[in-house]
Design goal:
about 170 residues; alpha+beta; Aminopeptidase; 8-stranded mixed beta sheet; 3 helices; about 35% strand; disordered N terminus
């Protein structure tokens, strides 16, 4: 799926499902994501310089890359069971592409592809991430409920819940 680049009509955005051929791009971006959040998660890279990833793509976990013809912009990975609540597990836009509503666009595309009940969670100390999700969901016209919940793995997380209706 290709749409005009939001701030430059001469460029295109491409949303691609992660498959074997583009999995290395996803994994590279996932390393940048893990490094960015490591001050909060307290994760450290292994002796090969790689962070352990918490989400494996495959089965009910669907992942998508957002790209221009020249650059990888970001990714989203979500658990999308046939029935039940969808959970956005990982979400990242490279720092040089932020501030252009590209994350909002990416989120909207993923939610539209998989209508139903959704949860989005952020680490309690990742206040910048929570602020992003509040803005993005509001910009997308999505009514959400915001709660603080105890996650077995991460501890306190801020969670938005909402229903995405088919379009």
């Amino acid at each position: 799926m290709t749409v005009p680049f939001l701030n430059d009509p001469k460029r295109d955005l491409c949303l691609q499902a992660v498959r074997d051929g583009n999995l290395p791009t996803y994994l590279n971006l996932a390393q940048a994501y893990e490094a960015e959040f490591s001050p909060i998660t307290k994760k450290h890279p292994d002796l090969n310089g790689l962070y352990a990833l918490d989400t494996t793509v495959g089965g009910e976990v669907k992942a998508y890359l957002l790209q221009t013809p020249e650059n990888a912009i970001g990714f989203a990975a979500a658990s999308v069971p046939a029935e039940g609540t969808r959970d956005l597990r990982e979400f990242y836009v490279v720092p040089t592409m932020r501030g252009q509503k590209l994350g909002t666009y990416l989120a909207g595309q993923v939610f539209t592809l998989h209508p139903g009940q959704w949860t989005v969670k952020q680490l309690e100390n990742a206040t910048h991430a929570t602020a992003f999700w509040h803005r993005a969901l509001t910009d997308l016209g999505i009514t959400y409920e915001d709660t603080l919940v105890q996650d077995d793995y991460w501890g306190n997380v801020v969670m938005q819940t909402f229903k995405m209706t088919p379009r």
